[in-house]
Amino acid sequence: QLHLVESGGGLVQPGGSLRLSCGASGSTLDGYAIGWFRQAPGKEREGVSCTSRSGGRANYGDSVKGRFTISRDNAKNAVYLQMDRLKSEDTAVYYCAAVAGYGDSCSTLSLRYGYWGQGTLVSVSS
To answer: Among 10, 19, 24, 32, which is 20 to 30 Å from 76 by CA?
Structure first.
């Protein structure tokens, strides 16, 4: 059974950077496409980014394009989300999620994903 754990959240000032990590136990991540999602208070869950199994394909939500970068290191069994030029509207709980297979592509639709971490809080405030 795949178990995902996010880390790296915290409080950062607007314009700052954070790097989130998604680690796994119970299985290796190289067989899964991985997505990052976020949910702010009172809002629906939003797809932030995703990476294919190989890391060769990535997609981003419009609100984070050009500021966030997803990457993965299958040797370390980890996926990362580098978040730069953070804005107050990026404040949310961030989740990583996994879906087995999915070819060499990925999706930012949450319903595609069957495995979820518990989330890590990112707060952007001065």
So the answer is: 10
* pLDDT tens digits for range 39-68: 999 999 999 999 999 999 999 999 999 999
Question: DSSP string spanning 54-116?
Answer: SS--EEE-TTTTTTEEEEEETTTTEEEEEE-S--GGG-EEEEEEEEE--TT-----GGG--EE
Q: What does the DSSP 8-state code read for residue 31?
A: G
The helix/strand/coil state of 117 is coil
Q: How confident is the model at residue 119 (pLDDT cuts 50, 70, 90)?
A: very high
Both tokens assigned to 19: 């790097």
